[in-house]
Amino acid sequence: MEAILAGIGDALTPINLFFIAAGVFTGILVGAIPGLNAPMAIAIAVPLTYYMSPLAGITFLIGINKGGTYGGSITAILLNTPGSPEATSTAFDGYPLARKGKGLKALKMALYASVFGDTFSDIVLFTVAAPLAIVALKMGPAEMTAVLLFSMTIIAGLSGRSLVRGLIAAALGAFLSTVGLDIQTAEPRLTFGFAELQDGIPIIPLAIGLLALSEILIQIERHLIAGGGGHRSIDIFGRSIPREDKVVSWAEWKTCFRTIMRSSLIGTGIGALPGIGAIVAGFLGYGAAKRASKHPERFGTGELEGVAAAEAANSAVTGANLIPLLALGIPGSLSAAILIGAFLIHGVDPGPLIFKEYPRLVYGIFAAMAVANLFNLVIGGFGLRFFALLVRFPESATHPIIILLCIAGAFATGSSMFSVGIMLVFAVLGYFMRKLDFSFATFIIGFALGENFEVFFRQTVILFMDRPMELFTRPIVLALLALTIWVLWRTGHRRAPAA
Amino acid sequence: MRRADIIAGLILTLAGLITIFVIVPREVGSTSPIGIAPDVFPLTLLWTITALSVLLVVLRLVTRPSRSDGPPLELHNIVFIGVAAIALAAGFIAIATLGFLAGGAAIVAFTMLVMGARRYPLRVVLVAALAPTAIFLVFKHVFTVFLP
């Protein structure tokens, strides 16, 4: 109880409140600029958290994630171009609503649904993560190896269009995590004589290259092919638009409430499973709302419920994604994988022990998440006019600045140009991975999990080298191996044409 | 994706075999006085990657090519990424030798011009001058990071 109160107190200090607000503002800003999204911003911002306290740094990044999830809906509604992939389903009804002159209403409903879904998901995180961590602490190396194997399989199977390509990406990521000093003998591995590689490939330049810079390269290429041109946004503030089309009435909120609740449940469930993510949650929430509606034919033509369903579901993933990260040390999503880097920067190893070793920090993060939801509502609400203007920002001005931020962020990781070089190499690799449909998200998660996977794998081998059959007498190991085989069979079978 | 998967699978298989038989024996020790040798885990992963790459090639070879299967990488993509890689390397050298302010300004101006901002020279000059300066100052004074 003492740790909970101390954590809440920490979160409410003026400096931490400032960083939470700054994170949420940055997130919405980034989400509202076409072509940029929250994971990109988180990757670039992680090195900056070196210079903050652990709580301020981590909550700043979580704020970006929360703000970015809502921010993506702004471009989806005003431009029919999702600012972030998870807002794709928001555009289905959001853009038609904007064309009918109800863009402001759609944006407000998106904000309310997003904040509700996010808060719901956070409450589930607060109540579930600690008990799950207690269970995880009772697991030995064999069980943890099986958990990691299962997680990597499920992530590989669900995050791309091909199971085989997903597994290759995960294994490749885990392989690159073996670069550096050996964990037992301290012997250099695959360092090619570079002293900078003795600590391994730093995750932050790798993530910035794969996530942010490679995406910018793809967008510059697309821009060159398409011939560029600015974004044409719909005016939602016009004086000719009646007031009832600019606000969400109490009756509309009541009509949508059941849908928002349903979507929040769907999003939370999806978020707690590693690898599925907010895009799927948005589609499932939208689909469930359409099926449950008395007027399914209205969906896709400008139904407010459609916006509420998609936004509540994709935002509910944000909090639940941290359940596997905090309870098991397994990132549930790309953003969570990058967050591992932020935790490690501050000497905190995310996983079940975090509740025992850093309870004050964990409860501080929980309190900050609740505050971030409030800030999301306030900043998103009051800043709508400003954020709506951002969607018109030309790519020719934003993209060069993002490239510079990528370079500066990578440099800040190790204060050396070597980190920038690593970032550039992974940017080119990321370009090919995107083009050839090898999931870069799976690669990063594989990389983030690689070190722990090796530790548990080696401990298991040492423990059971003389008596391997004993592994099959452990129920959790058996259950997880069976689940892994089942996932492999199901995803392979379901995607037979795409393998 | 069929042809691309076959090519990617073959490249990964070849790279996997080279790493297993040439790079790992040179770069990773194979003995350890305690526990298991440092090369066991990397080799386990490498064999997994190689086996999966072979599986990818085989699966694609037994699948009939469909008409909608366009090549995901065409010549213009290769040209683009080649030019981009050279430009990024040039930007890297520019920052390493001239510093972040001058190198950054060159990167911003080049990217803006490539992206069609030629019609707005004032905008190019302003963004190229202000963006690196602002980033440099924020990193220096807010985060105490001294960019080169």
How would you describe what is shown here?
The complex is a heterodimer of chains A (499) and B (148). Chain A has 499 residues and is mainly α. Chain A has one domain (2-494). Helices cover 72% and strands 1% of the residues of chain A. Chain A contains 21 helices and two strands. A two-stranded antiparallel ribbon of chain A has the order 1-2. In chain A, helix 6 runs antiparallel to helix 16 (359-382) and helix 11 (278-292) runs antiparallel to helix 12. Chain A is globular and about 80 Å long. Chain A starts with a helix and ends in a 5-residue tail after the last helix. With 148 residues, chain B is mainly α. Chain B folds into two domains: 2-62; 76-141, no CATH class. Chain B has helices at residues 2-27, 40-62, 75-98, 100-114, 121-141. In chain B, helix 3 (75-98) packs antiparallel against helix 4 and helix 4 runs antiparallel to helix 5. Chains A and B meet through helix 8, strand 2, helix 9, helix 18 and helix 19 of A and helix 1, helix 2, helix 3, helix 4 and helix 5 of B.
